């Protein structure tokens, strides 16, 4: 008996259940839902969640160049590695190494350069 070739939905009668659909995998219980996101052909991955402190994502970016858009204000904290960021109106990239953070305003696009795999946490809203 080998590994299954695809993930089938499972139904639990207890407080937690695993739900699967084609675009995302979520672990759901009465307190928290995790949402797995994948961008740029799998080079950027994050897990989104919400708790009493608000909404956030924790993720990893592989080496590459990316452009992101925002729909609300974001606070980005670099956990490991380094992000090189060009915010709107800037001509040069600025380095944000592990332990640093930066803010991005709502409804803008910003450019990211990553030279080595980098972990981050993004907090959404005011």
Automatic annotation (TrEMBL):
Keyword Glycosyltransferase: yes
Superkingdom: Bacteria
SUPFAM superfamilies: RmlC-like cupins
One Pfam family cited in the UniProt record for this chain: Ppnp
Gene3D superfamilies per record: Jelly Rolls (2.60.120.10)
GO-annotated cellular components: cytosol
GO molecular function annotation: guanosine phosphorylase activity; purine-nucleoside phosphorylase activity; thymidine phosphorylase activity; uridine phosphorylase activity
EC number: 2.4.2.1, 2.4.2.2
EC supergroup of this enzyme: transferase
Keywords from the UniProt entry: Glycosyltransferase, Transferase
UniProt key word Glycosyltransferase: yes
Catalysed reactions listed for this entry: uridine + phosphate = alpha-D-ribose 1-phosphate + uracil; xanthosine + phosphate = alpha-D-ribose 1-phosphate + xanthine; guanosine + phosphate = alpha-D-ribose 1-phosphate + guanine; cytidine + phosphate = cytosine + alpha-D-ribose 1-phosphate
Family the entry assigns: Belongs to the nucleoside phosphorylase PpnP family.
Function according to Swiss-Prot or TrEMBL: Catalyzes the phosphorolysis of diverse nucleosides, yielding D-ribose 1-phosphate and the respective free bases. Can use uridine, adenosine, guanosine, cytidine, thymidine, inosine and xanthosine as substrates. Also catalyzes the reverse reactions.
Name assigned to this protein: Pyrimidine/purine nucleoside phosphorylase
Organism encoding this protein: Roseimaritima ulvae
Name of the gene: ppnP
């Amino acid at each position: 008996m080998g590994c299954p070739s695809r993930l089938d939905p499972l139904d639990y009668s207890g407080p937690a259940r695993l739900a699967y659909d084609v675009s995302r995998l979520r672990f759901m219980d009465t307190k928290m839902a995790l949402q797995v996101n994948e961008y740029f052909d799998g080079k950027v991955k994050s897990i989104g969640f919400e708790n009493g402190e608000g909404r956030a994502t924790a993720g990893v970016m592989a080496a590459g160049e990316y452009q992101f858009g925002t729909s609300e204000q974001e606070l980005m904290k670099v956990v490991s590695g380094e992000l090189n960021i060009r915010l709107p109106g800037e001509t040069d990239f600025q380095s944000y190494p592990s332990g640093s953070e930066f803010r991005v305003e709502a409804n803008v696009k910003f450019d990211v350069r990553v030279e080595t795999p980098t972990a981050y946490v993004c907090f959404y809203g005011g």
